[in-house]
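Practice set, problem 2.
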Amino acid sequence: MIPMVDLKTQYLALREEIDRGILQALESTQFILGPNVRAFEEEAAAYLGAAHAVGVASGTDALHLALVAAGIKPGDEVITSPFTFIATAEAILYVGAKPVFVDIDPQTFNLDPELVAAAITPRTRAILPVHLFGQPADMEALNALAERHGLLVIEDCAQSFGATRGGLQTGTLGTAGCFSFFPSKNLGCYGDGGLITTGSAEVAEHLRVLRNHGSWQRYHHSELGFNSRLDEIQAVVLRTKLKHIDEFNAGRRRVAQRYTAGLHALNGVTPPYETAGGVHVYHQYTLLSPRRDEIMAALQKAEIACAVYYPIPLHRQEVFAEDCQGLSLPVSEQVAAQCLSLPVFPELADDAVDLILETIGAALA
């Protein structure tokens, strides 16, 4: 069996350091906002080139709190992608704003800036691009639009830790960056965890208040806040893995390049596209094929994992049925009907990649 991701192998390679750090945290009994959380925030900010980084309980909370801190409120519109995990749009709804879904670029699967421009109204307050699957969005074009119209840009970096655009890390290209550390992510913890980056000391301080019940001093609450704190044990895991993130991402890119070289020789399948000027970190390796179901069946028969990310665009989800009635986003719909993600993780061996390619080739023969 070839899995989508192999967390066990990665853990075994780092076990001594992770176990030692967790035991030290247990012995310290500082479990909430302890020294490892503070150290991880500093180390992540330094790696990313961000002025400030604030740990929170999940990637969803990172998006939610970033929108709260940005002042997004009921009646506002936030332009975002329909081809993403639902957390992107959930966070917009949490603050009472309206997600405005705009179609994606057929090559990158990220927001199409020209369509974003056409969707801006007097109620638009922010653009929320997703760096999907680890491919940075066209931030130059989106930031130019934002500057022209006085909008905020909140980056969804849930899948892009370590990805760069123009030499700059995702999460430092907009007003704020929102990261997820779900276990399967390029930088993942052993539970839920998230991080918000910002260039503003004032915003960072506000986020620290928001994540801790609106409290700036114990038992003093200045506003309605949330219980959204990255815990100490997850911070230990993240600090350990952060030291290896470049190695992990290089391993994913090695796998991706081998896949792409092999898929180019096949008819009926389109490998993922990499934009010039950016570094894709392949949280997912997602191909397109009108014969997706045949490929899936062959892989499953060979006990090779695969997955469809995402089978239903957000504007077609039941929760958005009323607001999006009659909305057609043809690129997102076509990509959802043809996309297939293959196993991709740093430890995936070349011979396993070759077996997967052989299985796909046989299915398409």
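Problem 2, part (b): a different protein.
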Amino acid sequence: MCSSKVAVCGGGICGVATSYFLAKRGVSTILVDPVGVASAASGRAGGFLALDWNDGSPTGTLARRSFALHEELAQSFGEASVDYRRLTCEAVAVSGGGGLRQRKVAGVQWADLGVMGAPRSMGDESTIAQVHPKKLVDRLWSEAQRLAGSSFRRSVVGVLTEGEGGAVSGVRLSDGQELSAASVLLALGPWSPAWLGLPRASGVKYHSILMRPSRTLSQAGQPLGASDAEVYPRPDGSVYVTGFPDPMAPVCEAPGEVEVRREVTRRLASTMGEVSTELAQAPVELESACHLPFAPDGLPMLGAVPGTPGAFVATGGGCWGILMGPAIGLGVAELMLDGEATSVDIRPFSPARFT
């Protein structure tokens, strides 16, 4: 049996951010994932960050702390290396449909077809930012390797404990090998199973396309009325578009084998053509799909697993998983090492609420 102090199951932003903050404290981890780092939603999401959109909800404080952490990480790594920048966001009411007259609206970069009324600001550069999720997670992982010699393995299939109801002792891999560990973090996103008495996570499947207009935009947006699409331009000149989610359900597709349904991606491209002459002419460079993770009550599930000393869980960020990922990683790392999270309060999200 190979030995490691900490095994982190899941190569998304929650697991990798935890590995990073553990590495900053000198703790090496073995990261276990069936496909690789940032291979699911953390490598396919839009990376939109909002300071205050969660205010008034249970995740408001967590989101605000993580918004600040994103800037700190970007400054440490170099903003260009993770495509971090501040930008604005506008909601624009549009009628949709074809054959609409072009109408330029002051303050709106991307929508000029079927625009109804004035746009509504959803945030300026003091409250809105973005990051490239895969570039961020890849950088967090490279830093965890550099700082503490963390390593990667594939496919966890179970958690080992010291007898019934005993402390965690490691994980079992798909090849039958057992890795001993004093602590195990389950950060398996929408594939989080009902292990150790935890509830099974569910997923909401989102499709996305990456378009390439003729200029670089710096304004995110939501065309209201014609669709529920979301528009996130990136600093490299591409535009990430997502929307039309599936209903929440247990995820049956295997990691790395998520089907991209062409009727959905074509609908996204068609919708952009109905609201923007610029995006109507933009080629689609990439089509993708991923499942966003949700716990049964819609809130993150973070903390120590009741009844199994040494076992921890971090999942359920939903559509704000990238935003909250750094603060989740910091809080869980502190909990694992110190017995409590002092930089951010994750107690409201304890899995004990399901027992």
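Answer key, part (b): The chain has seven helices and 20 strands. Residues 209 and 287 are 5 Å apart (CA to CA).
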